[in-house]
């Protein structure tokens, strides 16, 4: 409990923000000459995507700027950590976009909270499509930052999409690996049982029945405090308490597991030939996923593994000192390659 309380005390208080942003020091109004936020929508495979574009101070459409696509965590939305890093990147001179995944957040798509890897990878490509045409963007200087689950999907997207000239991840979470084997292989014994549940859920949907969901229970603080993993314990407080957003949810359709459990973000890592930066907290219990993918990235000559001293997975989302360290490294990385 002492550890939990100390973590919460560092968290930002949820602001009443006109743009729905729930991270600390978020933009509250668009001021001429400052970093501005531009809510946008666009179509991706017939689905309306909701996104925020952040432009640098003194943004001039006649100029050309490097741009960065930011992919949000599983269950997260653009108003949380993805928006924080997008805003910080804009403060550093980049045009940045953070979009809600299709079927999630404020984006369209039914049933709600479908969470299939192919969709999430396509979301990243869709952000690249949109931002490459945005006024002032130099599409030859396009970077990619993926956070948590968005990090795993960013690795998969960058393996084949060479519009991304530099690729970075923060606290990368290999969604398929964890949905299949459980966190730290804690669910290996139930793989076949969960696949059966997913198959039955798919059949029920096909027959016009109810949509079944996984991770669709409300967790109390007392239950969270007893969780064995920092990622889930601190994640509860981040997503449900200190940085809660009404569009953010842990749940996903049970049938999504048919796709998730055959996915592995680290497969084909040798296809990444772009410069690669992978960042993680030195105390993150999810670090094993970053380390594995990084070691398999044999196709790039320029790769770096950067550990943020003392940080856990979730703390890289909001603790000012850890965010500052991650941004310093991102500015060095994107500054060199974009």
Topology (elements, then pairings):
Blueprint: H1 2-10, E1 36-44, E2 47-55, E3 65-71, H2 81-91, E4 95-99, H3 117-132, E5 137-147, H4 149-160, E6 164-170, H5 175-181, H6 191-206, E7 213-214, H7 221-225, H8 230-242, E8 252-253, H9 257-260, E9 276-281, H10 287-295, E10 303-308, H11 320-337
Parallel strand pairs: 3-4, 3-5, 5-6, 6-9, 9-10
Antiparallel strand pairs: 1-2, 2-4, 7-8
- Alpha-carbon distance between the termini? 44 Å
Residues in helix, %: 25-40%
Overall strand count: 10
Oligomer: single chain
- CATH architecture type: 3-Layer(aba) Sandwich
Let me know the largest β-sheet: 8 strands, mixed
Q: State the domain count.
A: 1
Structural class: alpha/beta
Topology as a string of helices (H) and strands (E): HEEEHEHEHEHHEHHEHEHEH
Spatially, the strands of the biggest sheet line up as 1-2-4-3-5-6-9-10
In CATH, the homologous superfamily goes by the name Alpha/Beta hydrolase fold, catalytic domain
CATH fold call = Rossmann fold
Given this structure, which CATH class is correct?
Answer: Alpha Beta
Anisotropy-based shape: globular
| Annotation field: number of helices | 11
Strand content range: 15-25%
Supply Rg.
19 Å
